[in-house]
Design brief:
Layout lengths: L8 H31 L8 H7 L6 H12 L2 H14 L10 H19 L4 H10 L10 H35 L5 H4 L8 H9 L6 H33 L7 H29 L2 H25 L5 H24 L23 H4 L20 H22 L5 E3 L2 E3 L5 H10 L3 H13 L3 H10 L1
Antiparallel strand pairs: 1-2
Pfam family, one: SSF
GO molecular function: symporter activity
Organism: Rhipicephalus sanguineus (Brown dog tick)
Length: 460
């Protein structure tokens, strides 16, 4: 076995400097934004929830597209997926085949829908479909729509290119260890460790390379965690808390920080449990499929099924998501046969490593199914997402017809039967999120219509 190769001084310096610079830049802009908000007296700074959701719409489209890539360029995708490709092959890359369809759907359907309704999430579309018919906004603002289109298209291209690079890295690792499998030799205990092992053994002679890699990995992971935590907090606040509780800007900021802390705590606990449950990539794909099926069905229902009400969609999504999580956890803990891995050899390993070759080869034969397995656990998580979407759509339609109620009108607006007039008036003012209010107020401050320009010309 090769001797331990720890980080040298150059690696530590590069890692420390780059990490410190990244955090200092983030802290600086955070305090700069806070000072700008405190110094503003005309309300020109976006509200807390608008800022958390869209960054105040002050960033260029390319910067927001790069932020999307930063959300997926994390340690699991760099380290975990490379190890997954090394063990099981490149079948997971077929997921990228749907990127073109997903981008087209987002550009043609979702962006115009959300923009014209003046809402910020698909949950509000589901809610409005059963309670209020909000006034549609005009799509004549080409600057705004083109801005959103560019973000969707450019971010999709960047994401595909990133996963292409990850696939190239996986192919490189496969070729490098083609005749000296580190798992067979006992150098590593999990396929998730193949990238750190390669970094330690093969790049130790390149000055500061390991420090640069670790700094980039930490920065990407921090960016992903920050993006996910903020989006969880903002989505939960806007869709669950804001429609029912009127909070000031200060209280809203405190609530979103508490929600972000809770989301981060859950993510931390899950990260601690990952080593005991299996490889990170397989767990991610397993649980991602559990949530993506019901949520995809929720999007389809919001766009294509106006007869589905919020109760039916919500209960169907919750029930199927719980069922999917039960399937994912049960399948992970069952004795179902694991997928076959690429067979490795030790033909070109140093002589001391060949001593354990015969015993280590049994690793490839130890994953066979040895006991009774519940038939549903035999369903792959790649298919569970598809069937989860079908079950969600079916159950949502059934529950919606079972809970349908006669509509009534309030001042010409169709509202639900079980809402008071005050509640409906409150909802009409609060359901359209700060995305609409901030954007329209900005248009009034910074844009002039032809009629106003003519009036100003006459007065002058």
């Amino acid at each position: 076995m090769s001797s331990e190769k720890s980080l040298d001084t150059a690696d530590c310096v590069v890692f420390g400097v780059l990490t410190a610079v990244g955090y200092i830049v983030g802290i600086y802009f955070s305090f700069s934004r806070r000072r700008q908000k405190l110094a503003s007296s005309d309300g020109d700074v976006p509200s807390a929830d608008f800022e958390a959701f869209l960054g105040g719409q002050s960033l260029p489209s390319v910067a927001l597209a790069v932020s999307v890539v930063a959300s997926v360029a994390n340690g699991m995708n760099v380290v975990g997926f490379v190890g997954h490709y090394y063990a099981y092959g490149f079948h997971a890359l077929w997921i990228l085949a749907g990127t073109a369809f997903a981008t087209t759907f987002a550009v043609v359907v979702m962006i115009p829908l959300l923009y014209r309704l003046g809402v910020a999430s698909i949950f509000q579309v589901i809610y409005d479909s059963g309670h209020v018919e909000p006034p549609l906004r005009s799509m004549s603002d080409l600057n705004v729509t083109e801005y959103m289109f560019r973000i969707a298209v450019v971010s999709s291209v960047f994401v595909v290119f990133f996963f292409f690079l990850v696939g190239v890295a996986g192919g490189t690792i496969i070729y490098w260890y083609r005749d000296c499998d580190p798992l067979l030799s006992g150098a590593i205990k999990s396929y998730d460790q193949v990238v750190p092992y390669y970094l330690k053994e093969s790049l130790s002679e390149v000055t500061a390379m390991r420090g640069l890699f670790l700094a980039g990995l930490l920065g990407a992971t921090t960016s992903t965690v920050s993006s996910v935590v903020n989006s969880h907090a903002a989505t939960f606040y806007i869709d669950v808390i804001a429609p029912y509780y009127k909070l000031s800007e200060e209280k809203a900021l405190i609530v979103m920080r508490l929600l972000a802390f809770a989301s981060g705590a859950i993510m931390t606990l899950f990260a601690i449990a990952v080593p005991a449950l299996g490889t990170a990539t397989r767990l991610f794909l397993n649980f991602y499929a559990s949530a993506s099926g019901p949520f995809s069905a929720l999007v389809i229902l919001a766009v294509t099924s106006p007869w589905v009400n919020s109760k039916g969609a919500a209960w169907a999504s919750l029930v199927v998501c719980a069922f999917q999580i039960w399937h994912a956890v049960g399948r992970s803990m069952s004795s179902v046969a694991k997928p076959p891995v690429f067979p490795g050899t030790l033909d070109r390993c140093p002589a001391p490593e060949n001593i354990t070759a015969e015993a280590a080869r049994n690793l490839y034969n130890a994953d066979g199914q040895s006991a009774y397995v519940f038939p549903l656990y035999r369903l792959s998580f790649f298919w569970s997402s598809f069937f989860g979407a079908l079950m969600t759509i079916t159950l949502a339609v059934v529950l919606s017809f079972a809970t349908v109620s006669a509509p009534r009108t309030l001042n010409g607006v169709v509202v639900s039967k079980n809402r008071s007039d005050d509640d409906e008036r409150t909802k009409l003012g609060t359901e359209l999120t700060p995305v609409y209010k901030e954007r329209t107020s900005s248009d009034r401050r910074h844009c002039k219509t032809p009629q106003s320009a003519q009036r100003n010309g006459r007065s002058s």
